[in-house]
Structure formats: structure tokens, C-alpha cells
Amino acid sequence: MSGKINSAGAKSGIIGTTELDYEEGTWTPSVVGGSLTISSTYRAIYIKVGNIIHIQSYMVFNSNGAGTGL
């Protein structure tokens, strides 16, 4: 799988004496190779705090029945 960022809302703030690097937005997942296709994406978001990025998505897949997966 791969993805493309659709929108990003960069935010930053200060906690104590440390600057907070925070960003959140949406992304579009896609399947690269294989027999799967994405029929529906209900939610695809990411949250970045510092150098850690958390991605989350809920997708429905279609397959041609070849028995291959992600």
C-alpha cells in the first residue's frame, strides 16, 4: 500500500520550554501491485508528533479471488 497526503494543518505550540511539533491531516490510500482494489475508504487520517507519524484508515477491499493479500 501507499498513500498521498490530501491536506495538512500544521500546528505548533510550547509546553514548558520544549516546542511541540504537531501536524494532522488526511491522506488517500492506494494499493500498489497485487489483485486487491480499494472499494471504499471511510476514514484516512494521520497525526504527526515530533518525528513519529501515526496513520489510521478504514478501508473495504475487493479481490479477484486469486488468494493474494496485502
From TrEMBL:
Protein's recorded name: Uncharacterized protein
Species: marine metagenome
